[in-house]
Specification:
Elements lengths: L1 E5 L13 E5 L10 H11 E2 L9 H16 L32 E4 L7 E8 L1 H13 L3 H8 L1 H8 E3 L7 E8 L3 E8 L1 E4 L10 E4 L6 E4 L1 E7 L2 E6 L4 E4 L9 H5 L6 H11 L11 H9 L2 H15 L3 H33 L4 E5 L5 E5 L8 E3 L5 E2 L3 E6 L1 E5 L1 H4 L5 E3 L19 E2 L4 E6 L7 E6 L5 H10 L7 H30 L4 H15 L4 H5 L1 H12 L2 E3 L3 H6 L4 E4 L11 E9 L8 E2 L14 H8 L4 E3 L2 E3 L2 H10 L2 E3 L15 E4 L19 E10 L4 E8 L5 E7 L1 H6 L10 H9 L3 E10 L6 H6 L2 H4 L4 E9 L6 H10 L3 E5 L4 H10 L7 E8 L10 E8 L19 E6 H10 L1 H10 E5 L3 H13 L4 E5 L5 H6 L2 E4 L11 E3 L6 H38 L7 H19 L21 H26 L20 H6 L10 H20 L14 H19 ...
Helix pairs in contact: 3-4, 4-5, 8-10, 9-10, 9-14, 10-31, 13-14, 13-30, 16-30, 18-19, 27-38, 30-32, 30-34, 31-34, 31-35, 32-34, 32-37, 34-35, 34-37
Length: 1340
């Protein structure tokens, strides 16, 4: 009996005390890998609490021993969050942790990027009636509020209930733990027939296994174009899946087609096979746009201004808003039309209806399980389907960006292997791609089984990412909302102040309401959101001129904060094409023993045509002939062309050749003068390609089964990464100096491919060949030789990398190539410009038992390093070093050594042999450490990383670029610094405009409050002049300053508004602004000629200035006074001063004088303002209601105040803030430990810990027991790993406890002993996430 702790997050293995205990009464060995079996097993054998419905037993199986390990060994304190050794049991749980859930909640898509928490609600009629009464009585205002926040209406009208009774679902979707999105979805019920007695059922897919089951009715809800069906047996919702879920591949070959009734019944569940983009009419879009909170606020402001007779500005705002709404609606309709024309199309297809009956139907009617025929001339695919007979040549450029045609082969027959979309991608036809042509045997059709339709297809998922994009993870945008909220609080305070003061003055309720509400529109300017987008819009247009296209302008600002750039290698840093450098054959000794490498051959065609190496190069590829030209992967093409052989494919009736088993034949070139042979003439060296296993990124190889015609035995040729090929070859057939030769060429940057072969038994028949599984074929091979290709750097690569390095931007190579090749390229292109390279190798000592993993650190580059001291080489931590590792090591470290993962990620420069998923994981982990990550790639294997990065830029113009917010027309990385420059320019522009708009509203707020104190205000024309001619003009031209053309600055601009520097800047400017306005206000009152303003006598009747006032021709003014003049004069110039002060130049933008429109507007507005405050005509004096002081010298004193204001503001912003605060105080005050950029504290720890990583040439501590490893140190320098005994005595010695763990389980779970050496590890800063095991290394 075991005590198992239920936890919410599978990766958090350290602190499990906060979970609930579950008593399981069955031996550990009875757990199954099949989660459905485990569910039934637990239901019958365990006492489960009611909230255990979401516990997944597949994760329980893999982690039960780790949980016990965590229970036995207490977690160590987290040094990153606590300076003391105290321990707080139990981390804070995730909002979607199962331990927080009851029967009203569940987690869907657990562990997936679309993970969501759902909560059930049931409508309460009386609540619903009250809410509708509130909507009616509030004249729609309450409805508008609930329209903006639908979940509030759900809370008010419904009560929380168990999911089985819910008629509404609240969906909560979290994004990286920072953002939440909510959806309210109705639960619908579908019945097969009106009467329960009718024997009519639906076939819905099983949630935990293959196949379908019959039900009379089902409940479901739709969210983000995905249908979730209620499963009564397991009491949970599950996403509707096609035939790709837990389906054995043998099932596909057993399909005979669906009858018409079955097809109609399935279509009622799956819906039409169509990616439907809603066609919304203009009126709907118009209303939807108008109901945006921004426009609703503008409408309210305009109504207020009309009531307050502020007609001119209100009319201007109406015109601008109408233009903005019209543009938005037009752009939305245009985008919808473009997307609809791209993704919505249908055609007719031929399907099997059983008993070899064929029927032509619309592609919209296809459902999973249909068998479709692929015509020989090709077609467009409308669904995802699996090939079960024949081959197809497919152009997948629309989805993958790869313009090279891809050969699709039929799914292997037989076996219990489960279909996996990624593993069997070379047998899967994807919707949206185009079949160019097909290959089939005599009398057979090319058939495919439909597995996914509609939005469930790969193309549908791509469209869903467009319809439901991930939120932009950007600090600036978050802070802008917070600051607007602060302005709202300030507006509320001003509202209360105005109401109180004017009530005390005895003003009417109407006047108080108008003045108080008007104050809100002053503090929170309606034009703020529009002004914020100006910088991004201008940057987007400049990027388009540079050949960089953006589908998400909001991401432009994000790109300005990039401090880490990841690059793919092949096609991104290096040329797409490869040049054949040569080959190195292997000479096998007698009985294939004592093999040796022969001399390299630069021209493969010079090899004997009977050579196994030349035959393998001629056959082991996926090339095909399209329109008379050889097409396929560039590597295969270059390899095959170097042989000089000829590839022939049958056309027409020639498919009957070669006993109907070899659709593709290769033959050596004929000697000069030889007679031309026909297709039917067979030579002794002609080879037919019988079967092909396409290249798999997971397996890192491809293979073919061939036959020398006409009747020789079958031969297997397999090519792939040297490491992979060596692992599946007979060890005796591999030359002893294999690693040295491989290292020699990979360190020079060559792309090295290994080739191997295997002769199959003569008695093997073609029928057996067709049924063989890949694992049977790719084993016990004989090593044949190495193929060496030259992959040159692109001309632009090195200068761009150096430019990024000089800007202190971290550059990382993430590639699927060999680690040594990647290292060589990294050094050549300056990703590793200096310092040392440490190879990180993680492995399991016994590959058959994935327990007790170890990590080795090897110094593979000793450039100008210190000399050995007593046989030890110690790294000087002042000397920067870089780390390199491959995908398998990355995966082991990620799963078993989280703290080491942080360090390796911070210092890693080369990540090789990385799968697409690992690339994405690396990008996400860099983001967790606090980096703002950019990813640049060109292929389909980069799409996940491109999508996950803060800034993804694709070098492919195919539609796969929708996974990336940016696409470059130029296929090189020169786009990266351009994008970063424009991003920095846009970010600085947005910062400046935001600060300017905030300062503008606060300045005007101050002005109005000062004038309210004497019962005056600005006139309508003064307001109009400030709002329309000063603010709007400056905001419009502010963003026209282009990006700086010089080198990138060594530091990115700030990205947080709510931080010390921008807040201090704004506060200081406001102190200056308020001081000068108050100075002018009190100074004018101190003049001998001054007469105070009287609201009851605004025309100065009965005073000494009555005649002077009448001479100004100001009529019926209630605000004209000398206090108004003084404050307006100063404030009008302050808006101009602030526009200049907040308009930053180098190093992120060009000098301000290059923005001619902005400079012209500054000069013109300055001149015009001088005119209206010094010597205006009677017309302007009357229009502005400006009462000029009778003493001309006073006007120039005001101008003197303005000059002083200019000097102080500019010096404060450009000198004090920029040099004193930002560049000096910021560095000295910065605290790495408290910084959210975790990588800073990790890097600081490594600099202060010279003992890590432990590089040495010999062990300073004798291992307990030597265990051989598969490590091959490159320079003879390797870390000494601690080898832990796998026996009970070692466990007892280290724990001092003899009864914590059963003896029988100790040997099977010996890896938990690694936790006992926690105290020997140096404490490294870690994020506040639990960790499991500790790296098993020597710390001496």
């Amino acid at each position: 009996m075991f005590q198992i702790l239920k936890t919410g997050i599978s990766r958090n293995r350290r602190n499990h005390r906060g979970g609930e205990c579950l008593e399981v009464n069955f031996p550990i060995g009875t757990l199954h890998r099949d989660s459905a079996s485990n569910q039934r097993l637990l239901a019958s054998s365990a006492t489960l609490p009611m909230n255990m419905t979401e516990l997944t037993l597949s994760s329980l199986y893999s982690e039960i021993d780790l949980v016990i390990a965590d229970y036995v060994f207490p977690a160590m304190p987290d040094s990153r969050n606590s300076s003391s050794a105290s321990f707080e049991p139990g981390p804070s749980r995730s909002p979607t942790s199962e331990s927080d859930l009851d029967l009203s909640q569940a987690v869907l898509n657990k562990g997936d990027e679309e993970e969501m928490l759902i909560t059930g609600y049931e409508t309460v009629p009386w609540r619903l009636i009250l809410v509708w009464l509130g909507k009616i009585l509030s004249l729609g205002l309450f409805w508008l509020l609930l329209y903006w926040v639908p979940r509030w209406e759900l809370f008010l009208t419904s009560k929380r209930t168990i999911l089985s009774k819910a008629n509404q679902i609240l969906v909560k979707e979290e994004y990286k733990g920072r953002y939440c999105r909510y959806y309210v979805k109705a639960v619908k019920t579908v019945k097969a027939s009106k009467s329960a007695s009718d024997n009519v059922t639906f076939d819905i897919p099983n949630p935990f296994g293959p196949g379908h089951r019959s039900v009379h009715s089902y409940k479901y809800f739709n969210c983000k174009k995905v249908k979730y069906i209620w499963d009564e047996n397991n009491a949970q919702f599950f996403p509707l899946s096609g035939m790709d879920h837990q389906m054995p591949i043998s099932v596909f070959h057993a399909q005979t087609g669906l009858h018409s009734a079955q097809q109609i019944q399935r279509r009622s569940i799956y819906g039409n096979n169509a990616i439907v983009i809603p066609k919304r009419n203009i009126l709907y879009l118009l209303i939807k746009e108008v109901l945006n909170p921004f426009y609703v606020f503008q409408i309210a402001s305009v109504l207020l201004w009309f009531l307050d007779e502020y007609i001119y500005y209100a009319a201007a705002i109406v015109i601008m808003s109408a233009g903005g709404i019209t543009t938005a609606v037009y752009q939305t309709k245009k985008n919808e039309k473009r997307l609809r024309s791209t993704v919505m199309f249908s055609d007719t297809v031929e399907v099997f209806r059983g008993n070899d009956l064929l029927e032509v139907i619309s592609s919209d009617d296809l459902v999973p399980g249909d068998i479709i025929t692929i015509p020989s001339h090709g077609c467009d695919l409308h669904c995802d389907a699996v090939l079960i007979s024949g081959n197809a040549i497919v152009n997948e450029a629309m989805l993958t960006g790869e313009s090279v045609p891809v050969t699709k082969t039929m799914l292997p027959k037989g076996g219990s292997e489960i279909y996996d979309g990624k593993e069997h991608s070379r047998s899967t036809l994807f919707g949206g791609t185009r079949v160019i042509q097909t290959r089939q045997y005599k009398g057979q059709k090319v058939l495919a089984v439909v597995v996914r339709t509609g939005f469930a297809t790969t193309k549908g998922k791509l469209v869903r990412t467009i319809l439901y994009p991930a939120p932009v993870d950007f600090k600036f945008e978050q802070d802008s909302y917070k600051f607007v909220g602060f302005l709202g609080v300030l507006a509320a305070a001003g509202f209360i102040y105005t109401c109180v003061t004017q009530l005390m003055d005895g003003e009417s309720i109407k006047d108080i309401a108008l003045d108080a509400l008007d104050l809100i529109t002053i503090v929170v300017p309606p034009a703020l959101p529009a002004a914020m987008t100006i910088g991004s819009i201008y940057a987007q247009k400049r990027l388009q001129r540079k050949g960089i296209f953006c589908i998400s302008p909001r991401n432009i600002n994000v790109s300005g904060s990039v401090d880490c750039v990841c690059f793919d290698k092949t096609g991104t840093l290096t040329e797409d094409g490869l040049d054949m450098w040569g080959v190195i054959p292997v000479k096998q000794g007698s009985d294939e023993k004592d093999p040796k490498f022969a001399d390299h051959e630069k021209t493969p065609s010079n090899l004997d045509k009977g050579s196994e190496l030349i035959r393998g190069m001629a056959t082991c590829h996926s090339l095909t002939i399209i329109d008379g030209e050889l097409s396929g992967d560039p590597l295969d093409l270059k390899m095959f062309e170097s042989t000089g052989w000829i590839l022939e494919e049958p056309t027409g009736n020639s498919s009957e050749m070669y006993d109907q088993i070899a659709p593709t034949v290769v033959r050596p070139p004929e000697p000069p003068g030889s007679p031309k042979r026909s297709e039917s003439d067979l030579g002794d060296n002609d080879i037919g390609i019988i079967r092909q296993f396409p290249f798999s990124s997971n397996r890192q190889c491809m293979s073919v089964i061939v036959r020398r015609l006409p009747a020789n035995p079958f031969t297997v040729f397999c090519k792939g990464s040297p490491e992979k090929i060596a692992s599946i070859c007979v060890p005796e057939t591999i030359p002893k100096n294999f690693h040295e030769v491989l290292q020699e060429y990979t360190q020079k940057g060559y792309r090295v491919i290994a080739l191997a072969r295997r002769y199959m038994v003569k008695s093997l028949k073609i029928t057996k060949i067709e049924r063989m599984e890949r694992e049977e074929v790719e084993q016990s091979l004989v090593f044949v030789g190495l193929i060496i290709l030259d992959n040159r750097l692109k001309e632009e690569t090195t200068p761009i990398i150096e430019q990024l390095q000089n800007a202190r931007l971290r550059t990382i190579m993430v590639t699927g190539d060999n680690v040594n090749t990647a290292l060589s390229v990294a050094k050549e292109c300056k990703i590793i410009p200096y310092g040392r390279v440490i190879m990180v190798h993680a492995f399991f000592p016994d590959p058959t038992k994935p327990i007790c993993p170890k990590v080795e650190f090897t110094l593979c580059d000793t450039v100008s390093g210190p000399k050995p001291i007593n046989g030890m080489k110690i790294l000087d931590m002042d000397d920067r070093y870089h780390m390199a590792l491959d995908g398998s090591s990355f995966e082991i470290i990620r799963l078993h050594f989280p703290e080491v993962l942080d360090r390796v990620t911070v210092r890693g420069a080369v990540f090789a042999r990385m799968s697409p998923e690992q690339k994405q994981i690396l990008v996400e982990h860099l983001q967790e450490l606090g980096y703002c990550v950019a990813m640049c790639g060109d292929g389909a294997n980069d799409c996940g990383a491109l999508k996950a990065a803060h800034t993804g830029i694709s070098l492919s113009e195919a539609e796969s670029s929708v996974a990336s917010p940016f696409t470059s027309k130029e296929p090189n990385i020169s786009c990266m610094p351009e994008l970063i420059k424009e991003g920095r320019c846009a970010l600085v522009t947005s910062f400046g405009i935001f600060k300017y708009m905030a300062a503008y509203s606060l300045t005007q707020f101050t002005t109005v409050l000062i004038l309210y104190s004497i019962d005056s205000n600005l006139s309508d024309i003064q307001f109009l002049y400030i709002d329309l001619f000063l603010i709007t003009v400056f905001a419009f031209f502010f963003g026209l300053t282009e990006a700086f053309e010089g080198d990138l600055a060594p530091h990115p601009p700030m990205k947080s508004l709510i931080s010390f520097t921008p807040i201090l800047s704004l506060l200081l400017q406001m102190v200056i602004i308020i001081s000068f306005q108050c100075l002018a206000f009190f100074y004018v009152q101190s003049q001998e000629w001054f007469v105070p303003f009287d609201g009851d006598n605004p025309t100065y009747n009965g005073t000494k200035w009555e005649d002077y006032y009448q001479a100004t021709t100001i009529e019926d003014s209630e605000v004209a006074c000398w206090e108004n003049y003084a404050v307006f004069t100063i404030s009008a110039f302050q808006y101009i001063i602030l526009a200049y002060a907040f308009s930053k130049s180098s190093p992120y933008r060009k000098m301000i004088y290059t923005n001619l429109w902005f400079i012209a507007s500054l000069l013109f507005m300055t001149a015009f303002t001088l005119y209206i405050v010094l010597y205006p005509s009677y017309y302007f004096q009357s229009s502005f209601e400006t009462l000029l002081p009778p003493i001309e010298g006073f006007r120039f004193v005001m101008i003197g105040f303005v000059v002083a204001n200019v000097v102080i503001c500019v010096l404060t912003e450009d000198y004090f803030m920029e040099f004193v605060i930002f560049r000096h105080c910021r560095k000295s005050c910065h605290n790495h430990e408290k910084s959210k950029r975790v990588y800073l504290s990790v890097d600081k720890w490594m600099k202060n810990t010279p003992s890590w990583p432990p590089i040495s040439s010999r062990s300073s501590r004798k291992p307990i027991r030597d265990t051989p490893t598969d490590s091959s140190p490159i320079d003879g320098l390797t870390v000494v790993t601690e080898v832990v005994r796998n026996d009970e005595e070692a466990f007892q010695e280290m724990t001092g406890n003899h009864e914590l763990y059963p003896k029988t389980a100790l040997a099977e779970n010996s890896h938990i002993i690694a936790a006992a050496i926690l105290n020997s590890m140096p404490n490294t800063p870690t994020k506040s996430r639990p960790t499991s095991e500790v790296m098993d290394i020597d710390d001496s």
